[in-house]
């Protein structure tokens, strides 16, 4: 099966390219190959590659930036998805759309969200990703929506990378302890995406590393795993760090459909973090 991976130079896209290459040769495209929000460009790319399946990782991922640049976020997350979905509809190609826990508000989460729960985003990034989901879910060709959360992997910006830097610059730091979620290593997520694509399973799936924590818990674990004193990190409330975009206070994703599909159990987030951090501390990351 010929697979096209969009956003192939992004944090998740790179791992999808590496993992999918184990079974077949994926073709990757990124912004430098053309803006997928331009209908002619998306059409040209799809016609040239002529894939049987598209793993759509390309997106506007700057959550706070989406508040001040809503048109650009809409263009990347909605229009680009619409263009790819249009081609899939005409050609019969399958589409995997990577989505986010931020399609939920966090209100009344009751310990987490199942796949069927209604979308109710509270920020512009979440709104554009939810609109992208609606486009994909209306397809008559095979489609998958894979919601994930709190990604870390070999990219220039992610939470563990920021904490590692701050620990090297400051004596102590305060980290938000009133938002809960499921941290996810892009490498582990790429395996789940491969599992779903190869089986052609349809519908919405939640895919994260297992376990739940707050940003504070995650920051402490970064300290522990890199030999710093975790007590240099203090818990605080979100009100201490007002951000342009509101965040859900609980965006835990429950992965019932993935388990029913027989997907191997995903490693815990601490295990995933322990496998990721050496990339940063050994200087092997592409982004030093
Ligand atoms: N990061 C997270 O914590 C997180 C959490 C939940 C879900 N997700 C979802 O997971 C997916 C992958 O996220 P990520 O963090 O790996 O993303 P990323 O590192 O930001 O990579 C996204 C890639 O898409 C490219 N791109 C953006 N707009 C494009 C366009 N209009 N046409 C073509 N390419 C375009 C970007 O290019 P430039 O870099 O040049 O702009 C970038 O290379 C996204 O769908 C995201 O919404 C992410």
Give a quick set of tags describing it.
alpha/beta; 6-stranded parallel beta sheet; 12 strands; 40% helix; binds NADP nicotinamide-adenine-dinucleotide phosphate
Poorly predicted ranges:
none
The CATH superfamily of the domain at 3-156 and 183-210 and 253-267 appears as NAD(P)-binding Rossmann-like Domain
What is the CATH first-level class name of the domain at 3-156 and 183-210 and 253-267? Alpha Beta
The whole-angstrom Rg is 18 Å
Order of helices and strands: EHEHEHHEHEEHEEEHEEHEHH
Structural account:
This protein is α/β, with parallel strands linked by helices and 288 residues long. It has a domain at 3-156 and 183-210 and 253-267: 3-Layer(aba) Sandwich (Rossmann fold). The chain is 40% helix and 15% strand. The chain has 10 helices and 12 strands. A 6-stranded parallel sheet has the order 2-1-3-4-5-10, sandwiched between helices. The longest helix has 22 residues, at 70-91. Bound molecules: NADP nicotinamide-adenine-dinucleotide phosphate. The site of NADP nicotinamide-adenine-dinucleotide phosphate (NAP) has 26 residues, from helix 1, helix 4 and strand 4.
